[in-house]
Specification:
This protein is α/β, with parallel strands linked by helices. The chain is built from ten helices and eight strands. The structure holds uridine-5'-diphosphate (UDP) and magnesium ion (MG).
């Protein structure tokens, strides 16, 4: 069986409100696109009618493939599974809520045809998102860019096209805590951007509450930077210099001015400050050690429940097979 030219990978988690709209937009899009295309939905343990609706859609539409997880494994893992199963020469990851307009994919495909391996969507305007989301995202990506040694494009999400060789490379990165956009940047090859306006969510509510956002941010930083671990060395060095200075000052006060002050306030302040700094640094150590522990366990990233319109086995062919070399 030949490969489809394009795969769309769409993670869905409790998206019953948006699915009918998505289906309609996709149908229109697939008609204009006019390329052999498959759509891989990853049902990330939805608790509403999402899976039931997908079953119905997939029955009449063989281009819709569905992979249903045994439970919610999270957005980044769902994307990973989609990339494991997608068979297209090019693969596009997009959100289910139509914040990533399918029409932009046409521009991405054009760039891919010009020879780019990664075409990411860069958000020009973001409509209808809370100021909290906008501000925290802005701060996070600037902070992230300052900390990590690889270049991660600003104002981009996971909406992007990847060539098959990038997808195959990504499958080789076996990390448990996944920050897909960083991993794609790490892979390299020829990358470029297309600009688009990010609409608001078409229906339903965000599936990224603050707790998931924080985990996502922590995974991003710890996966790509050990700067927070080094921070304790720098801080330790700084505090040592300060305390030597203080010791000198105390000696001068004692021997030259004979003005030894009781100094209770000073000592209580320094001790509690140091205790706080130490706890914080142990906390940072814990973040990394915990992730090492989880990585070492080597559990599978996800467990597949149901599969519709495709094989249970992930697409394991790699580029060693000459027939598979992307054209
Ligand atoms: N999603 C998922 N698993 C999760 C959370 C979200 O598969 O645990 C999917 C969700 O269905 C959507 C995409 O990830 O297709 C992005 O989520 P959402 O639109 O809620 O995030 P936001 O745009 O608010 O950041
Ligand atoms: Mg969204």
């Amino acid at each position: 069986m030949g490969r489809p030219t394009l795969s769309l990978v769409i993670p869905v988690f409790n998206e019953q409100e948006v699915l009918p709209m998505l289906h309609e937009r996709l149908q229109g899009f697939l008609a204009t696109l006019n390329l052999p295309t498959e759509v891989v939905f990853i049902n990330d343990g939805s608790k509403d009618r999402t899976f039931e609706m997908l079953q119905k859609l997939a029955k009449d539409e063989p281009r819709y493939k569905v992979l249903s997880f045994a439970r919610n494994f999270g957005h980044q893992v769902a994307i990973t599974a989609g990339l494991d199963y997608a068979r297209g020469e090019a693969v596009v990851v997009m959100d289910a809520d139509l914040q990533d307009p399918p029409e932009v994919v046409l521009q991405m495909v054009e760039k891919w045809r010009e020879g780019f391996d990664v075409v990411y969507g860069r958000r020009q305007h973001r409509e209808a998102e809370t100021w909290f989301k906008l501000v925290t995202a802005k701060i996070f990506y600037r902070f992230f860019a300052a900390m990590v040694p690889i270049e991660v494009p600003l104002d981009t999400g996971d909406f992007r096209l990847m060539s098959r060789r990038v997808v195959v490379a990504l499958r080789a990165l076996k990390e448990t805590h996944r920050f897909v956009r960083g991993m794609v940047a790490w892979i390299g090859f020829n990358q470029t951007a297309v600009l688009y306006d990010r609409a608001g969510r078409a229906a339903g509510e965000t599936k990224y509450p603050l707790k998931k956002m924080l985990k996502f941010a922590a995974d991003g930083i710890t996966s790509f930077s050990i700067l927070p671990l080094r921070a304790s060395s720098y801080l330790g060095l700084l505090i040592s210099v300060l305390s030597v200075g203080m010791a000198v000052w105390a000696m001068i006060a004692h021997f030259v001015y004979h003005a030894t002050v009781p100094g209770w306030t000073a000592s209580i302040v320094t001790t509690s400050l140091l205790a706080a700094v130490q706890l914080m640094m142990i906390g940072i150590l814990g973040e990394y050690v915990g992730r090492i522990y989880e990585q070492v366990k080597g559990r599978p990233l996800y467990l597949v429940g149901e599969v519709l319109n495709m094989s249970r086995n992930a697409d394991n062919d790699d580029l060693d097979d000459p027939a598979d070399t992307p054209s």
